[in-house]
Amino acid sequence: MKKELRIKKNKDFQTVFQQGRSFANRQFVVYSLPKEDQDFFRIGLSVSKKLGNAVTRNKIKRYIRQSVFELKDQLLPGYDYVIIARKPAAEMDFFMIKKSLTHVFKVGKVLKNR
């Protein structure tokens, strides 16, 4: 994922948490915040130490990044998204994570209509 498509700074995370809206399912919580001055979306990831060791957390983050990469044409541009993984995500494979993320994005109405 390119650098300009990532949220890295704590200040940016806090802005999305405080001003954005959230939607969730059992595996993920997603916060979204519209940004008028950008024509692309940015993604921030949060995977807690409660989900497992570093190997497990990095695997979850890789799966989420790849899922977002595959869904990038369907996601609405001009938004900041923060994705928080919950405990059940640790036992999921890539396809289950992609399906779950697609579901949570549909719940939040941030996917373009096909």
From TrEMBL:
EC number per UniProt: 3.1.26.5
Pfam families: Ribonuclease_P
Catalytic activity: Endonucleolytic cleavage of RNA, removing 5'-extranucleotides from tRNA precursor
InterPro entries: Ribosomal_Su5_D2-typ_SF, Ribsml_uS5_D2-typ_fold_subgr, RNase_P, RNase_P_CS
Principal EC category: hydrolase
GO molecular function: ribonuclease P activity
Keyword terms, alphabetized: Endonuclease, Hydrolase, Nuclease, RNA-binding, tRNA processing
The family this protein is said to belong to: Belongs to the RnpA family.
Subunit structure: Consists of a catalytic RNA component (M1 or rnpB) and a protein subunit.
Function comment: RNaseP catalyzes the removal of the 5'-leader sequence from pre-tRNA to produce the mature 5'-terminus. It can also cleave other RNA substrates such as 4.5S RNA. The protein component plays an auxiliary but essential role in vivo by binding to the 5'-leader sequence and broadening the substrate specificity of the ribozyme.
Protein name stated in the entry: Ribonuclease P protein component
Organism encoding this protein: Neobacillus paridis
